[in-house]
Amino acid sequence: MQFAADRRIEANKLAFERLTKSDPVLVDVRPAREFIPGFTRQTILTSGPPMAWSDYTGGQRGAIIGGVLFENLAKDRDEAIARLDAGEIKVGGCHDFGCVGSLAGIYTASMPVFVVENRAFGNVACCNIYEGSNPRRLNYGVYDEGVRDRLLLVQNEIVPVIAEALRQSSGIPLKPIIKRALGMGDELHSRNSAAALLFLRELVPSFLGLATSGSERIVRAVQTMVDDQYFFLRLSMAAAKATADAARGIEGSSVVTAMAFNCRGFAIRVSGLGDTWFKGPHAQVEAKLFEGHSEDEITWMGGESIIAETIGLGGFAQASAPSLQAYQGGSYETMIARNKELYAITVGENPDYLVPALGFRGTPTGIDIFKVVESKVLPVLDVGIAGKGGGQIGAGVVRPPLACFEAAAEAYRQRYG
């Protein structure tokens, strides 16, 4: 037993080292079908452990149908459902394609994706582009003419400018932006305001160089990038995915490398247990809802942005973002207390991601399933809240079910003793 425990400690040290020494760099922006292996025009990706098409319900099912319509794979909703039923259009899980999805996480073939390379370990991850601040969005289970127009605006007008500017650089390192943003009030999940401005600063020299070919498109791109804090969230997610994937597949490690949910429940992946999803019921939620909405409207339609928490950001850096209390409720004292308790379930303190309010202590990083099971302290995850009628209706904090960690711990014991 001691040998197994020592082995786990060493394996977790290696996982922690990979999580903290990763170097995510934005290197490209390209349509999904051009970059992601195995992605065809008849492929729709969605968040959470993959299921049969017939198992998807509610807003997540509606978002998948919306993806089919956006890609012009069907003339209307009924034909989209028929083609999905027949298997002519395939539904896949984002993580299985090296991607990470926000809420319903819809990816279609023509949608552009941020390509982030982990230059320390050589792996690559993708995230699609934020579709705008309107609460009615495809990733929140809504597809209508307004959603389509905003998706096309991003795809045809905003992304080409960013891609052209990016090509003038050798890539934009994201870790320095994240490090600095943590000291400016972000936690890099539910608040990314500082990170968005810092990212824009990296592109400004290239934008100035492009200005001779028409300033209006550059102005539109800049407005989109700074108009809402969530533009950088997709970069943060891609950076987190590239970082967390570097810690996958370490024999004997009990560190969590992914957390996700779909419309059916919550699940985690563990480094030393391959790509198996360990599932449980939906998370517990504490939400602050937008005016005019009530708790009986809250629904689940997927989500993988909590990849940020697996690398010590989001809820694990909550004390860095005091303004979140105005957005997702609670008090700053509660946020600090939550942040402190997470050190009990992680492998170590991140040497780069520091929390000013905690005396510049490193964020708790590397969730250990056994520490969660033994302490009963559950991870704190910052999320947006979806409504049954589609769209975002609020924001809050969720705690995943203990059952996921217990199931993973049992599987670990069966495999390693």
Descriptive report:
The protein is α+β, with helices and mostly antiparallel strands and 417 residues long. It has a domain of 165 residues: Alpha-Beta Complex (v583 fold), CATH 3.90.1700. 39% of the residues lie in helices and 21% in strands. The protein has 14 helices and 15 strands. A four-stranded antiparallel sheet has the order 5-4-1-6. It has a four-stranded antiparallel sheet with strand order 10-15-14-11, with no helix packed on it. Helix 3 packs across helix 4, helix 5 packs across helix 7 and helix 7 packs antiparallel against helix 8. The longest helix has 23 residues. It is globular, with a radius of gyration of 20 Å. The model has no long low-confidence stretch (mean pLDDT 94).
Tell me the layout of helices and strands.
Blueprint: H1 2-21, E1 24-31, H2 32-35, E2 43-46, H3 58-70, H4 77-85, E3 90-93, E4 112-118, E5 124-128, H5 145-167, E6 172-173, H6 175-182, H7 193-210, H8 215-227, H9 231-245, E7 256-262, E8 265-270, E9 278-280, E10 284-289, E11 298-299, H10 307-310, H11 324-328, H12 332-341, E12 346-355, E13 361-367, H13 369-375, E14 381-387, E15 392-399, H14 402-416
Parallel strand pairs: 2-3
Antiparallel strand pairs: 1-4, 1-6, 4-5, 7-8, 8-9, 10-15, 11-14, 12-13, 14-15
